[in-house]
# Entry
Amino acid sequence: MPITPQNLAHHELIGLRVRVAKARCRSYKGFSGVVVDETRNTLVVEGLDGKRRRVMKKGCTFHFRLPTGCIVAVEGRVLVGRPEDRLTRRALRKW
Amino acid sequence: MERIELLYEQALKTYRSDYELAQRYVTLARRIAMRARVRQPRYLKRVVCKHCKSLIVPGYNCRVRIRQRREPHVTIYCMVCKRFTRIPLRRRKVR
# Structure
């Protein structure tokens, strides 16, 4: 099943291009790059300058670019959870 | 699911620059497979050491040899845990 805007929250985030669109913490905002790692509460994003930054999922809104080229805005809240735990579908569907 | 394959793909792409990150991808992929109760495809099982579950790449951190003793089989020597894995080769049917 390829990645779509509908199943993004249950799919693999590593390797996707991402931009932090909104953030409660101002220093995260506008940061963009490639997701290299993921924990329960954070994403590790490698910027274009090669620097890795850990961004909280909660409290941010992300713009993911899918391989198809379409850009999806996702609230970080729906991404909270360990990568292997995000597999199962949850009723939480707000994006 | 295809998330597993994606992760392995990423792992194989990154092992040269950052082996630990690649190893993390393998661990994640394995965890996802276990959580989803999905069998890992055979070609992916060849990429991971049976003993220490680390990513092994021929010519990088493992040796692959074909042995004829007793029965034709492939021997993979993992340089991480320094153990052998044997894969028997099925004998061809005589026509």
Observations:
- The radius of gyration of chain B is 15 Å.
- Helices of chain B lie at 2-14, 19-36, 42-45.
